[in-house]
Design brief:
- The structure holds three protein chains of three kinds.
- Chain A is mainly α.
- Chain A contains 13 helices and no strands.
- Chain A is globular.
- The radius of gyration of chain B is 26 Å and the shape is flat.
- The longest helix of chain B is centred in the last third of the chain and has 36 residues.
- Chain C is an alpha+beta fold.
- Chain C folds into two domains: 232 residues, P-loop containing nucleotide triphosphate hydrolases (Rossmann fold); 113 residues, Nucleic acid-binding proteins (OB fold (Dihydrolipoamide Acetyltransferase, E2P), Beta Barrel).
- Chain C is 25% helix and 34% strand.
- The longest helix of chain C is centred in the middle third of the chain and has 18 residues.
- The chains are: A mainly alpha, B mainly alpha, C alpha+beta.
- Chain B: Keywords: Cell membrane, Membrane, Sugar transport, Transmembrane, Transmembrane helix, Transport.
- Chain B: Its main location: membrane.
- Chain B: One of its GO terms (cellular component) is plasma membrane.
- Chain B: One of its GO terms (biological process) is maltodextrin transmembrane transport.
């Protein structure tokens, strides 16, 4: 034991602050959150230290899970919402990645004004999300929004973007794409710059066309960056609630799992913490399953990650 | 490039030779057109908020928006004078909270990232995995348990409690990124430092931290943004008193039932965005390098 | 100034099975001595040096510096300076700051640091570059800064880990001489690691040869060349490498291609009872003889012209197999490709015999 401490105490001392913060502020609340899923806790029966009211909620077993997983409308139509969440996640990440990669490749060329372009293109990342949300909500407005004005003047149909239709989902996907592209672009630009130039020269000498160079040099060279940022992108997008919540509000057409959890949590007559937590645990489970499959697939392709 | 007389003559003789770096005119125009188009889309919403911020609330909701319409700086004056809520106090709270999050978040992720990069120790793998797990959990749903724990620690309603909560969301990604960045600093540098007489902490503080500036800049940017624009926790954990709100919470006063004061909201938004954009501008030249090494090494 | 000793020091990397990177190394280095650790990659030479520096654990045994047991002392307490293969210059510090960093950590006064740095810079011809960052220096200059960083500290032991391997060939030869001269002048005990046996032979007072974590032999360059302790050392030291062949042995001598190479009575006695021995002879101890004389029949396959002399590679039949031999001949009259020549032992005192299985030197 002494030898163990002798050898590792530097390392443990350096990770200790992070471990303490995460354990206290994540693991403990997480455990409590999981416990809530087996109760009927809500605003009315939770212990309230301010009013010195003791807790009166009861243990209900798996009732919350049964309610949610049976997919009833009064519990957020879980399966429909899950499908919408998947559509939302994959279309956002798809656009983030393809547009981000395209722009990164443009920026990776010798082009005049490259630094200026880069600064302008990363700007959406620097603007706080709630401000971007206001800006887009304003621009999407059906009556006085600039977007519909532009569409009308171009003779195109002007949908009610944030109304009770699937346009609401389209709108939030557009906004989230706008928000998320800079991160992908920057990460992929870094990845592109780390591909040694002589690989391209070797490919050119071997007679590869530009497309073949992209296919056989660029994409494999970006693989490790891509696998990381795509996984992160999927996790973040799956749980991205401010954009939808601030733009579309509690609109069921743009509802994803996490916004519904938040809705149950904050609105409604009785702030249903139990159902919100149940949703939280289900979201975590879905992501865990996904991450496990993802990593296994990567490992099968020989990627050590 | 140096040119001597003979090589100049050769160029003249063959009239025009194709250089490897040359691009056809059409390709150049297409490249710039694509970049200009993308930049316009990236900047437009911010530009439009700025345009709106100059209009009175009533003019901001006209069916056919114009670029300028009774534009003035009145919205800014009113927002700053505190007529619409104590904007300057909110601003101060936000700056304090964001800076504390940045300093604490970067420091603890740097120590953890360094340990993960340099030392092998039992539990390292578990630690890195738990970071990924933390990213997966929808934090919004943890508000009640978090609230309970902040009460237990006596930190509810204080900025430090909120700062710690922000750290938990920022730290996992920051640690991953800094670990990746530290991996690119050769271990020889550490050893040279040890031989020169530094302790392991000394190596970290005096050699690695100065060398990791690009990585630290990106991490700082990320941590700052995490705290600067956050709404849900800030509205749940800070006391309801007007002078203890952050900007993100305070700005909700402009969004009242059925009637949004778009002009004022836009002006306030621009004021909020400025510090974030300044921070962004300061670190942007490090962003590509810093983020890449972090993400590549994962 | 201090002497260094390894006392059965081992470094064991955990694994299955555990790897003994350095295995019970025992070595005494005298005060002021220049000792070179040489061996192929993976021989444990760098690990041995890093154990001395305190950068690797000493899992068994002990290490003493200046008579003091430093086995559990961290690097900063060992009074050593190290030159790394990559130089490991601090990129964010100027040359002067790099060189003075250790002194600054020790709390030496600024003026004194400045004086010492300037003195070392003068010695290494770096005065012009003191305010530059390492990035703005050439490879040779960086190498000298790394040396300067070590000198300024005035440590009791210098440790150098392949300090020349990132230089081009010409600069390497030049710097080799400079380092040896500098060490002579400062008189500081120096342990120098290299994989290049020429470097080892030209620089070291003594050379320790390692293989698979085990010390093979530690002696002066001359003694290593003349009396290698085993077949490995014999093949490793000397360029081109010694011809080492397993051949049958009779009571008169070793049998090569029908020719009996006579051996001394002592040698035959040492090989007593063996049917075969590993027979070693350096290319320079062989020679081409006129076709009438007795010798081995060799077909020339390759001639390497070195200017002053030439190396002739060719095939000789030993038993049923054809074996390659290298012979050093006068550069002005080399044989041509495909030619059949007669090769004979020029100097019988330069024949080395080794045990065919253990590789140990056979001697009375």
């Amino acid at each position: 034991m002494r030898r163990f401490l002798d050898r590792y105490w530097y390392a443990y001392a350096m990770v200790l602050p992070v471990v303490v913060v995460i354990a206290v502020l994540v693991l403990y609340p997480l455990a409590q959150g999981v416990y809530f899923t087996f109760t009927n806790i809500n605003e009315g029966n939770i212990a309230n230290p301010v009013l010195e009211r003791p807790a009166t909620f009861d243990f209900v077993g798996f009732k919350n899970y049964l309610n949610v997983l049976s997919g009833g409308d009064s519990f957020g139509a879980f399966w429909g919402t899950l499908v919408r969440t998947l559509i939302w996640t994959f279309s956002c990440v798809f656009f983030h990645y393809t547009i981000g990669l395209g722009l990164a490749m443009l920026l990776n060329r010798q082009v005049r004004g490259r630094t200026l372009y880069r600064v302008l293109l990363i700007l959406p990342w620097a603007v706080p999300a709630f401000i971007s949300a206001f800006a887009w909500k304003y621009m999407f407005n059906a009556q006085y929004g600039i977007i519909n004005q532009l569409l009308r003047s171009a003779g195109l149909p002007d949908p009610v973007w944030l109304g009770q239709s699937n346009w609401a989902l389209v709108s939030v996907i557009i906004v989230n794409t706008w928000l998320g592209v800079p991160f992908m672009m920057v990460a992929l630009l870094g990845g592109l710059q780390s591909i040694p130039g002589d690989l391209y020269e070797a490919a050119e000498v071997d007679g590869a066309t530009p497309w073949q160079r992209f296919r056989h040099v660029t994409l494999p060279g970006l693989r490790s960056v891509s696998s990381t940022v795509v996984l992160l992108g999927i996790i973040w997008t799956f749980n991205m609630f401010p954009v939808i919540y601030l733009i579309a509000g509690p609109n069921p057409n743009a509802r994803i799992l996490v916004t519904y959890a938040f809705e149950r949590f904050f609105s409604g007559a009785s702030r249903d913490y139990a159902i919100a937590s149940t949703y939280g645990v289900l979201i975590l489970s879905v992501l865990l399953v996904f991450a496990t499959i993802y990593r296994r697939a990567l490992r099968k392709q020989g990627e050590v990650w | 490039m140096t040119l001597d007389a003979s090589s100049l003559q050769v160029v003249k003789a063959t009239d025009r030779r194709l250089r490897r770096t040359d691009r056809s005119k059409g390709a150049s125009i297409a490249l710039h057109a694509a970049l200009i188009g993308a930049s316009a889309i990236a900047v437009f919403p911010v530009f439009w908020v700025f345009i709106t911020s100059l209009k009175p609330d009533a003019r901001a909701v006209e069916p056919t928006p114009k670029l300028f319409n009774e534009s003035s700086l009145d919205n800014y004056t009113r927002v700053l004078s505190g007529e619409k809520g104590d904007f300057l106090a909110w601003f101060g709270n936000s700056v304090l909270i964001a800076l504390m999050t940045t300093v604490i978040g970067v420091f603890i992720s740097a120590t953890a990232g360094y340990a993960a990069s340099r030392f092998r120790f039992p539990g390292k793998r578990g630690l890195m995995m738990s970071f990924l797990l933390v990213q997966m959990f929808p934090f919004a749903v943890l508000i009640v348990p978090l609230y309970n724990i902040l009460i237990a620690l006596g930190l509810n309603g204080t900025s430090i409690g909120l700062v710690l909560v922000y750290c938990t969301t920022a730290v996992p990604f920051c640690t991953y990124m800094l670990k990746g960045y530290f991996d690119t600093v050769p271990a020889d540098i550490d050893e040279a430092g040890r031989v020169d007489g530094l302790s392991p902490f000394g190596v970290f503080w005096r050699l690695i931290m100065p060398l990791a500036k690009p990585g630290l800049a990106v991490t700082a940017f990320y941590a700052f943004l995490t705290a600067w624009g956050e709404v849900a926790f800030a509205s749940a954990f800070l006391s309801a008193a007007d002078e203890s709100k952050t900007l993100a919470v305070g700005l909700q006063v402009f969004v009242q039932q059925n009637r949004t004061e778009w002009g004022h909201l836009a002006a306030a938004s621009i004021l909020v965005a400025i510090p974030a954009i300044v921070v962004f501008y300061l670190v942007q030249r490090f962003l590509v390098q810093g983020l890449a090494s972090g993400a590549v090494k994962g | 100034m201090a002497e260094v000793s390894y006392v059965k020091a081992s470094r064991v990397f955990s694994g299955n099975p555990p790897v003994r990177a350095v295995d019970e190394l025992s070595l005494e280095v005298a005060d002021g001595e220049f000792l070179v650790l040489v061996g192929p990659s993976g021989s444990g030479k760098s690990t041995a040096l890093r154990m001395l520096a305190g950068l690797e654990d000493i899992d068994e045994g002990a290490i003493h510096i200046g008579g003091k047991d430093v086995t559990n002392v961290p690097p900063k307490g060992r009074d050593i300076a190290m030159v790394f293969q990559s130089y490991a210059l601090y990129p964010h510090m100027t040359v002067a700051e790099n060189m003075g960093f250790a002194l600054k950590l020790r709390g030496v006064a600024k003026t004194e640091i400045k004086a010492k740095v300037e003195e070392a810079a003068k010695m290494l011809d770096l005065t012009k570059y003191l305010e530059r960052k390492p990035k703005a220096l050439s490879g040779g200059q960086r190498q000298r800064v790394a040396m300067g960083r070590a000198i300024v500290r005035e440590p009791s032991v210098f440790l150098m880990d392949e300090p020349l391997s990132n230089l081009d060939a010409k600069l390497r030869v030049e710097t080799r001489a400079n380092i040896a001269a500098l060490q002579q002048r400062l008189g500081t005990t120096t342990i120098y690691v290299t994989h290049d046996q020429v470097e080892a032979m030209t620089m070291g007072h003594r050379v320790a040869v390692l293989k698979d974590g085990l010390l093979q032999q530690c002696d002066t360059p001359r003694a290593l060349y003349d009396r290698p302790a085993n077949a490995f050392v014999a093949g490793f030291i000397g360029s081109p490498a010694m011809n080492l062949k397993t051949v049958p042995i009779t009571s008169e001598g070793a049998k090569l291609d029908g020719v009996i190479v006579p051996l001394s009575r002592d040698a035959i006695a040492a090989a007593g009872g063996l049917d075969e021995v590993t027979f070693g002879i350096r290319p320079e101890a062989l020679g081409i003889v006129p076709s009438g004389e007795e010798g081995m029949e060799m077909t020339v396959e390759l001639v390497e012209e070195l200017g002053a002399d030439a190396l002739v590679h060719g095939a000789v039949k030993i038993g049923d197999a054809s074996q390659r031999f290298v012979v050093r001949v006068d550069g002005r009259t080399p044989p041509t490709l495909g030619q059949h020549v007669k090769v004979a032992v020029r100097d019988h005192s330069e024949i080395h015999l080794f045990h065919p299985e253990t590789g140990e030197r056979l001697e009375a």
